[in-house]
């Protein structure tokens, strides 16, 4: 193990969704996290916390890390337009032995880079968004807290503890069932299917028009 996790950030990323994962790896597996972004500049999370990247995407070397983590993002407009971010993720196409985890809206960036092609996944996007983004394969969506497809792990935003455990186990670590509290033992598909109102749908279509095909 390299004992390092790469946390890919972008404006309005969710620090909360990955905090328990970083805590778990730091205190149970002696693994630190490093922040990666396309530029060496401070990035503000959706909670208002600024983080400073230790590495740029250009400096990133896959052999230096155990996995790459993509948090969710409350406002994806800047990140989806970031061509450097898309190019960085495209570098992982064809790499099957490096673990990539994405939670909440994070999987949409994997899809944009072609990494979810013909793969099962989950995310916290609204149904209407998933249906209209040209790069998202809606038929492969699974309404579940966490979905594993080869080396890629995707999760709903509310399943941040489950996400942390799945990533740890995927990397070969022993991880007891109750290592983190807050599991949803009983869930149904409807818990992970979200809809926009008509007004919200219209606003979404106007904001993301160039990325929509339906």
UniProtKB/TrEMBL annotation:
Coiled coil: none annotated. PANTHER family: ARAC-FAMILY TRANSCRIPTIONAL REGULATOR (PTHR43130), HTH-TYPE TRANSCRIPTIONAL REGULATOR RV1931C (PTHR43130:SF3). Pfam families: DJ-1_PfpI. Residues 3-168 form the DJ-1/PfpI domain. It comes from the Bacteria. This is 4-methyl-5(B-hydroxyethyl)-thiazole monophosphate biosynthesis protein.
């Amino acid at each position: 193990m390299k004992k390092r996790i790469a946390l890919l950030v972008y404006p309005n990323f969710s620090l909360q969704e990955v905090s328990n994962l970083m805590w778990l790896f730091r205190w149970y597996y002696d693994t630190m996290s490093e922040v990666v972004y396309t530029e060496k500049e401070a990035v503000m999370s959706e909670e208002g916390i600024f983080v400073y990247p230790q590495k740029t995407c250009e400096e990133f070397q896959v052999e230096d890390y155990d996995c790459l983590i993509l948090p969710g993002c409350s406002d994806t407009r800047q990140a989806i337009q970031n061509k450097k971010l898309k190019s960085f993720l495209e570098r992982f196409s064809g790499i099957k032995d490096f673990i990539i985890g994405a939670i909440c809206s994070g999987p949409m960036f994997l899809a944009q880079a072609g990494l979810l092609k013909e793969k099962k996944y989950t995310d916290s996007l609204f149904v209407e968004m998933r249906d209209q983004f040209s790069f998202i394969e809606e038929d492969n969506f699974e309404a579940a807290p966490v979905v594993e497809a080869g080396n890629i792990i995707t999760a709903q935003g509310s399943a941040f503890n489950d996400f942390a455990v799945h990533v740890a186990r995927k990397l070969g670590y022993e991880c007891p069932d109750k290592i983190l509290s807050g599991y949803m033992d009983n869930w149904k598909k409807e818990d992970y299917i979200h809809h926009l109102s008509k007004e919200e749908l219209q606003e979404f279509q106007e904001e993301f028009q160039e990325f929509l095909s339906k």
